[in-house]
Amino acid sequence: MKWIFAWIALGSSALVAMDAEPVRLLDKPEALPLALSDEFQFRKVLVFENDGRSAVSGLGGSSGRSNRRKGLNSEQMIDFEAKYRNFGAVSSLDRKERQGQYFTFFWRVDRPANLKLRLEYRQERLGPYIQAREVDLGEVVGSGKTELTVLGDDYLWEGRVSSWRAVLIEDGRIVGLASSALWN
């Protein structure tokens, strides 16, 4: 009887995972008209860079003092975030694939709307060239959280994200906007 409930729970979680919209990498992001509204807003933006220099090898019971001597970060929250992002990465290839920048956007919508969230960004080695990643949020209202990443080969070959802009798009118009200080 326990196994039946376990299989039902596993099947329902798989359906929820399949329902999530994948992130699309846009080849040529088009310029959209700006129609900002107070009904759409970004509440908070978190950017975490997993560059491989964080304390990811927390096994073996080493003390904080030895971690500082090795050049690892002594801030516990940043160490936890790195361990969280690298959890399950066994080989060095797994850890390299998880190196990159993680963008977490917390947003709020006051009325029902069919939205897309687009992250436009520039990377160090590409100069002024703008890339974009987009995810369909669907019909949403209230608060939400969306995570977009620049990982693996994109990060290792093209460098860190030097400037970025996140936009909420409704019917081909930008209705919400958040950007880094270097975005112009």
Word description of this protein:
- Strands 1, 2, 3, 4, 5 and 6 form a six-stranded antiparallel β-sheet that branches.
- The termini are far apart.
- By secondary structure, the protein is α+β, with helices and mostly antiparallel strands.
- The protein has two domains: 24-49 and 99-179, Immunoglobulin-like; 52-96, no CATH class.
- Helix content is 26%, strand content 41%.
- The model is unreliable at 12-18 and 55-69 (pLDDT under 50).
Give a quick summary of the entry.
By secondary structure, the chain is α+β, with helices and mostly antiparallel strands. Helix content is 26%, strand content 41%.
CATH class of the largest domain: Mainly Beta
CATH architecture of the largest domain: Sandwich
List the uncertain runs. Answer: 12-18, 55-69
Total DSSP helices: 5
Give the helix proportion (percent range): 25-40%
How many beta strands in the DSSP annotation? 6
Quickly count the domains.
2
Spell out the helices and strands N to C: HEEHHHEEHEE
- Rg (CA only): 19 Å
Largest sheet, if any?
Answer: 6 strands, antiparallel
Percent range for β-strand residues: 35-45%
* First-last Cα distance: 60 Å
On the 0-100 scale, what is the average pLDDT? Answer: 83
